[in-house]
Amino acid sequence: MANEIPITVEHVEAIARQRLPKNVLDYYASGADDQTAVKRNRTDFDRLYILPRVLRDVAKVDTSTRLLGHTYPLPIGIAPTAMQKLVSGGAAGYEALVLTVDTPVLGNRLNERLNPLVLPKGLKLANIASLYGQKEGNPTSNRTLMNARSAKEATEILRAMGDQAHSASLTWGETIKFLRQNTSLKIILKGILAPEDADLAIEHGADALIVSNHGGRQLDSAPSTIQALPEIVAIVRRRIPVIFDGGIRRGSDVFKALALGADFVLVGRPTLWGLAFDGRNGVETVINILERELSRTMALSGVVNIQNINQAFLRHLEGGRLSKI
């Protein structure tokens, strides 16, 4: 399989799974607790059906779109993911500040606890190492906290961690205000699931939000992101871009997220599988696969541009019958 040219994202993942050490694979692939949120992020896409329109001129399909003042050839970007050097030696630049808002503490990631991730020789978390002198190869204190067996032990770990701990005290009233005072970059909030929080994001001046459940790695009982998306789109009312993250593995998944109102989608784990497969070329392979699948899905659905993808193309099963969303 390793010598085959992958033709689906799942094929790329299968190759990556063969190559990665178990503790690295568990770190990237696993979710919290019973991993039901990870599964729902995928299976809930299968509950949506695309209703194609026919006899439309789809000879020229345009997959380009605009987001935050930029034009992109695809409505697909790469999600923020941690410790990419575990699968590749490359680096990337940035044009926006993405604040992950759903991680006051780490979720209960059982596979990570059973197979702890210790960074290999030569790798370290640069931001923590520069501030707190993290020793090479040691797990972060936040991951030590995840293994606490009692409230007393957790309190002792937190006391020893000091400022290294994930902040559990961020608030709407102070956080975005502080960031705005200290950066000229666009501020994007990642980890929004409640429509009320989407409204607060706009009220406090966020430039965009990302509908995300952290890939199922935080609260296992949280809804899938495709479940949460419609309510958030309804309350945002196009005042800021709504970006979607979670479970995208096919071009048809991209189509469905856009049809439910997302302005843009992100892929996280698939890009990591691409890095493990063939570095930068592997990531390009993943994006090219999604582009071909999205373009084909659009043509087969009777749509020639991203702006015309809407809920009219979607149906879901209700009582054994297809119903409008």
Automatic annotation (TrEMBL):
Enzyme active site: H214 (proton acceptor)
Endpoints of the signal sequence: none
PROSITE patterns from the UniProt entry: FMN_HYDROXY_ACID_DH_1, FMN_HYDROXY_ACID_DH_2
Domain FMN hydroxy acid dehydrogenase: residue ranges: 1-319
Pfam assignment, any one: FMN_dh
Alphabetical list of SUPFAM superfamilies matching this protein: FMN-linked oxidoreductases (SSF51395)
Keyword match Flavoprotein: yes
MF term (GO), any: oxidoreductase activity
CDD domains linked: alpha_hydroxyacid_oxid_FMN (cd02809)
Protein family membership: Belongs to the FMN-dependent alpha-hydroxy acid dehydrogenase family.
Protein's name according to its UniProt entry: FMN hydroxy acid dehydrogenase domain-containing protein
Domain of life, source organism: Eukaryota
Species this protein is from: Penicillium steckii
Keywords (A to Z) from UniProt: Flavoprotein, FMN, Oxidoreductase
